[in-house]
Amino acid sequence: MSNSNHVTTEKTIDFRGGGFAPKSKKWLGFVVFFFILAFIEIGTRVGFISNLTLPRPSDVFTTFLELWESGLLWEHLIPSLTRLFVGASIGSSLGICVGILIGLFSLARGSLVPVIAAIFPIPKIALLPLFVIWFGIDETSKYALIAFGTFTPTVVATYGAVDNVDRSLIRMGQSFSLSWFSIVTKIVLPGAMPGILSGLRISLAIAIILLVAAEMLGAEYGIGAYILEAGSLYNLERLFTGVAILSILGVSVSATIGMVENRLLDWRT
What we know:
By secondary structure, this protein is an all-alpha fold. The protein has one domain: MetI-like (MetI-like fold), CATH 1.10.3720. It has 10 helices and no strands. It has helices at residues 26-46, 57-70, 72-104, 106-119, 128-135, 139-163, 167-175, 180-215, 223-232, 236-264. Helix 3 crosses helix 4, helix 3 (72-104) runs antiparallel to helix 8 and helix 9 packs antiparallel against helix 10. The radius of gyration is 25 Å and the shape is globular.
């Protein structure tokens, strides 16, 4: 009598979707960016892309190196960074404070939300002449424009983030007899932080746009003034060099916010 052993094997089916936990593939962005530059370089050299439309990326890089070696890069970049830092710091700080007030207090919500809703759709660039009349053509008008431009989107993002905090967590804190201050600092603000930081990404991108607009009016030095001068001379290499510097600045700001997110929001992992 022979005994036969039946071995049952279970085959697991892999989950085919990424769900809501996408894997980071930072190298992929660099590869795509490299191929775009390579395509433009080849196109301008072969001739199916006109040099009057796009300059060669190699010429733009050469212009950037000349700007670096001459020292003009820092003469334009430092004033721009100063204006961006001062204006965005004022606007985002006030925006976060006002947004938290609106999210926590009914009186602030009832009185301030209509005001924010009224000024939010106004194109901030269109107010640049008004800020020049109010504050003069010097640095104050540039700070004020950038601060005002970052203020309203930061307010909207902040009180929206406070509203989206899970109410069951707040009720849990109340059931444990936590004080109002403890609930705000330990539950509401940490829960709202992802939305606040996401709003800051948008606000700082708007700040860079307003920085360029402000520097195109009455600024001797700055990336915006550099781009305006290059455009008036129809120097595409210099113009795209300025655009590339702005792109690098935007990526650096986004990366900085990403590092802050990793530091403050490590509890999500």
